[in-house]
Each structure stands twice: as C-alpha cells, then as structure tokens.
What does this fold into?
Amino acid sequence: MTTLNVKGGRVLQEDLTIEYSDILIDVDEGIILEMGKSLGGDDEMDINGGLIIPGLVNAHTHIAMTLLRGYSDDKPLERWLKEDIWPIESQLTPRDVHIGSQLALVELIKSGTTTFCDMYFHMSEVAKATDSSGLRAVLGQGIVTIGKDENDAHDDAKNGLEFAEKYDGYAEGRISTAFMPHSINTVDLEYFEEHIPRVRESDIPIHLHTNETLEDVKKTVEMHQMRPIEFSLEHDILGPGDFAAHCVHVDSNEISLLAENEIGVVHCPASNMKLASGIAPIQEMLDRGVTVGLGTDGAASNDDLDLFGEMRDAAMVGKLFAKNASAMNAKSVFSMATMAGAKLLGIPAGKIESGFVADLAVLNIEAAHLTPIGNGVNGIVYSAKGSDITHTICDGKILMKDKKIETLDEPKVIAAARECVEDLTERVGNKK
Ligand SMILES: [Zn+2]
It folds into this structure.
C-alpha cells in the first residue's frame, strides 16, 4: 500500500466544523484512511494552511459544450436549441468533442470538482479524455429520436444502451454510466419501450431532462394527457435510483411522486435563470424528502462549470423564490454539491470520512474575500469561488498541486480549444 499524507491544513469535518488536521490516503485504493496528526505516510503534500473540502459533484452537465460558450446568448430554451445550438452541434466531430471535453476537464479540476455527470454524443471521446484527466464521472450518450428517420432514431437509442453497457467500470472504475434519453419530448415512446426492459435488467440508472420549461410540460400534457413525472412513472422511464435534471415546473403531486419513488433531482439554477426557464421549488423538494444534487448544465447556458457559483446561485434564487431568507441555507446547498449529488450518482463520495473515496479539494482561505471564513460552510457557499482552489485530488491521486494541473497540459488544451472553435465557426458559417 502506498500512502499520501495531505498535511499542514484544516479539514471540513463530517459535521461541517473546521479542525486543524491532516488526512492519510491509500493511494492504490483511492480511499481516505484516517484524519489526525502525525499520521506518517510514504509521501507528503503540504497544503500551507488551506481548507480541505470534499471534491464537488457536478451532477448534470454537457462538458464538450465549453466550445459553444458565448455562441448563443439571450434566447429562451426552445429558440436557443433550435436556432443555434442544434445546428452547430450537428457539425461537431469526435475530435471537437475530445478537445471541448479537455477544456472542461481543466476547468473542473481547477475549480475543485472531482465528479461530474455528462450527457452528450461522441461519448467514447468524453470517456477517453476523462480517463486521462484522472476525474470521476457518470457518462451517457444523449439520445434524441425526433426529427430523425427510423433507422437513425433506432441506431441512436441502441448506441445509447451499448455505450452504457460497454463503458461501465471504465478508467479503473472511475467511470460509471447511465442510459440518457434527452427527454420524453425528444425521444419517441417506442424507443423507451424497446430498450427499457434491458436497461432495468442491466441495473443501469436512467438520467434525462424533464419539466424544464412550461412549454415542455404543456407538450407532454397535450400529447399524453399526463404530466411528465406521471407519464415517466407510468412507462417505467423513471424509477428508484434514476435522476432527472431541472424539474423546474413540477406540481405538488409530482414532488410527492419523486419522493415516494426515490427519483433524484439535479438543480441547475444558473441555466434555468439564463434561459428564463423558471425557478425550481427546491426547498419544498428537500422538505418532502427528495434527494437533490447540483449541476451547471452545459457551459453554453451558464456560462462556466464553477460549482461555487452554482451553490451561491442556488442559495440566492432559492431564498427569493421561497420569499424566506432561511430557505436554501448554506448547509443544504453545500450538501447538494457534495453528499447528495454523490448519493444520486451512486458514488461513495461527498464527505471526508475514513473509507470514503479520496476525492478532495483544497481551498485557499487566506484571500480577502474569505476573511473571516465564519463557520466554514457559510463562507464556502456565499463567498468562495472556483479560483480559490489550490489543490485537487481524485481517487487518491493528485490532479492539481499549487494550482498546476498534473494530468493535462493546461496552456496546450486552451490553445487547441481556441483553434478548434475558430475552425468550427468557420464550418458552421459556410453552412449558413
Ligand atoms: Zn442539460
């Protein structure tokens, strides 16, 4: 066994208090062994008084969309997708997706995220890039069948299932998978009916977008005379252990159904605000026992992958929506970005405890905007930024040390992404 002692700092304990402590990690197994002082260890890493927090969990994103950051702004979801995003996405090559993923992986590592859940296409490229970055992920091929001929639609759904079966356990177990239909309005029911029995048999979770906009809900009600969560349960499209992104426009009965059926929800407040989709009733979901994680959604509707910003947004907009300053308190929001997110992805992460995965981030709390840090969690949620992260560890391995990424060449990745975007916009321009 090789051990690493992360020393010279403070640790955010399980009860969310801060204590001066070191952490001993089993590097081979990638787990936390113990916390305390004078722990020894084969290797040591001094973090100079930093605060060790659990690595953050981004439970819903589309990482390669970093390439589309700033490509289309200030439009509502339907027009944003149809007029700009889907046309440019149709031009993305596997190489583009690889480069866009690398750009995102740099941003995730730099801002202390150690696990993310990604839905996109050319997913074998996302898996390869994730593998070499050292991060942990739940990946799925996004399935869309509407607007496609029968053969293409059939292949898309089949590929989604095959990807989930093939890549589960990839990257020495850091990658797991889910079956990811884009939504019940963009995948025809026949493809759900064809594939869901095998998905259930293989015990693969399902992740999709749902109840994102009023328009989205209206479409389902008109087509099926049922609200989306009811319809999804009726057809086994959602069930225990599955998780859905957004859930902005859910009624009281749907919240009960989510809680009773143990379906997780991923809250994406920045994306919901930018596309003016609405505000999800998250405090009510928490009060009624729904597991809620936090996601940035893609960088084209956020426009970054910084979960610290997302925590702040979730708290601020949640209080405003509930008209209650005590709603969406710092502890609940921090849990969404760590423990709850890990729980809904089925990963033993999100807290610093012996036996849990060694996915950690170190926050420089000497900065002016973090002085004083208060009770810790409040400072993390309301004042900290991704750029305050100095070290990132995932699966026991150091991915960033003193702000320098060890697994990816940051300047090279940024230069390649710039070139890639130039080429892509030229291709799309020529098509227009
Ligand atoms: Zn999304």
